[in-house]
Amino acid sequence: MKIFYAVQATGNGHISRAMTLLPHLQQYGEVDIFLSGDNAHLPLNGPVKYRSKGISLFYNCNGGLDYWEITRKLNPIRVKREIRDLPVEKYDLVLNDFDYITSAACARKKIPSVHFGHQASFYSEHTPRPAKRSTAGEWILTRFVKAAAHTGYHFEKYDTGIFEPVVKKEILEAVPLTENHITIYLPSFCEPQLMELLNKFPDHRFQVFSRETNLIREEKHIQFMPVDRDLFTRSMIGCAGIICGAGFETPAEAIHLGKKIMTIPISGQYEQQCNAAGLEKLGIRCLPAIDHTFEQHFNAWINDPTPAVKKNYSNSIRESLEYLFSLSPSRLKESVQSAYENTAALL
Question: What pLDDT shows up at residue 188?
Fold first, then answer.
């Protein structure tokens, strides 16, 4: 079987999950990867056969999206050309982890695909949403990528076809430690903003993973570290707690380890607001933003004696791939027309 695997390269979570899933997918056939996006800091060590700058999100230094940079990097002529040329018809199975180009190419050529990843879970109404829904956000989560079938991942099994998170081997095999540092991963903030924030807590040590540094350096009680898979894994295994955005992979790994977590969704990113709703259902502390109340929230969080949420996510890969490869080719082909009818209008 020849498998086409489109991986979104906005942020590092999609790449981290793909690297974990890849050897398991290769047991089912030959995998070619299409890496689509222009804002990730982890390398994808695998068979990347096709590359594109895709359609990516970019962040400012104050916890939100950089709309100017997003618009500046968008090239509709390039995207239309790549939709036309992407050879999805040469594969037996097309897996799409939230890439519009692959979705549109499949719609254009009437090729069935499977939406395969975290965003695929939002096709279910049972997947958590914030109290105030965003019409634009819902459109992006449910219509930006169309597919004949869905295999999704989320913090819990909210519906059929939704599985618990994929956790990398190093986390599954880890023995959690409690050292004296707090791990920080807030990619929508820059180092000066994080320095100003963390200088309020001189009695705590922080390991800050930053897209702005290539070397490890220390400034008083703050250690700045480059975004690196192994460094981050070691930091999280040993941390006393982690403060991160409300993405998916990082909170999921922290939950598996039983770590104390506080999340801050990226401003304007609806998916992270939805993730925060799911985390709050589990009893995890989520702040809507970093503001003048952060010091109070931090102290309450770090001193809270309540045991951290811990879930065993070790069976997810086996369960999800068994489900994925149980989807019959005939069923996928029958679903092509209805699945792509809305996508075709965007071509």
Answer: 87
